[in-house]
Amino acid sequence: RLLHRDEELRLMRLLFDYMFTAPYEMSQRAIIVGGVGSGKTALAQIFGRWLRDEAKKRRVKASFIHVNCRELRGSLFMVLRRVVKTLKPDFPDRGYAANELMETLMQLLDEENTQLLLALDEVDSLVNTEGENALYELTRTQEGRPDAPRRLSLLCITKDPTVFNRLDPSTRSSLQRNMIELRPYVLPQLAEIVMSRSDAAFRRGAIPVEVIDFIAELALQERSDARYAIDLLWRAGKYAELESAKQITPDHVRR
Questions:
Q1: Nearest Cα to 156, choosing from 8, 26, 32, 11?
Q2: How many angstroms separate the CA atoms of 45 and 51, rounded?
């Protein structure tokens, strides 16, 4: 469960509903923007799971692939190779340039007669390494196939929306018209996230409410970072377990 992001999830479903209602007739671009620990990656992955399930239910071919551009050193070649190998695991690792991989990707989608929503996490790494050309190629790939079915849509994920200022105006315009901004969590939301995770992970009574509030307050000081809150919860639980304690205490959290 991804708490307190229901509205953003509904918006994403509206933006990409065409993949079921009018498949192959258009492609879409959207951006998820939010600070560290705001749930950007989780939102994208939960949406991707819903998209796959919905496609199966409606008997429409649609795929979702999530790649982290920073893990792939901001290289368009490595991003495209990862995508192609996800679709075709026996595809060779070497012998292709980025533009050839782009052509191969579209050929694979044609062969499978499917649509792909490609989520580019930490897309700023791709822009910083490759400049404006990488996103230009990805957003314009359909223009070389004017009569072909629309198969590729993009979901860009970043904590720094100013990175798009480096793009040419047309690419920037096509991306920024659908921006989903994740506002920072407030204290009660952080506390509810910690409570939800503790309910799933610990036996009943293992963590008092005041300790949950303490963790939420610390996370609020760290720019409302829910990931930091969950990490504190996990580590405090490990310290308590190490001592065979019956409850997690504020001291476990401080440590």
A1: 32
A2: 10
- Report whether 216 contacts 205 (CB < 8 A): no
Neighbour tally for 227: CB within 10 Å: 16
Mapping DSSP to helix (H, G, I), strand (E, B) and coil, where does residue 132 land? coil
Q: Are strands 62-68 and 115-121 parallel, antiparallel or unpaired?
A: parallel
> Full-prediction pTM beyond 0.85?
yes
Let me know: does 46 contact 1? Beta carbons within 8 Å: no
Tens-place pLDDT, residues 164-174: 888 888 788 87
Q: Quick one: CA dihedral 96, 152, 67, 85, positive or negative?
A: negative
Candidates 105, 60, 61, 58; CA nearest to 80 is 105
The contacts of residue 14 (CB under 8 Å, 6+ apart) are none
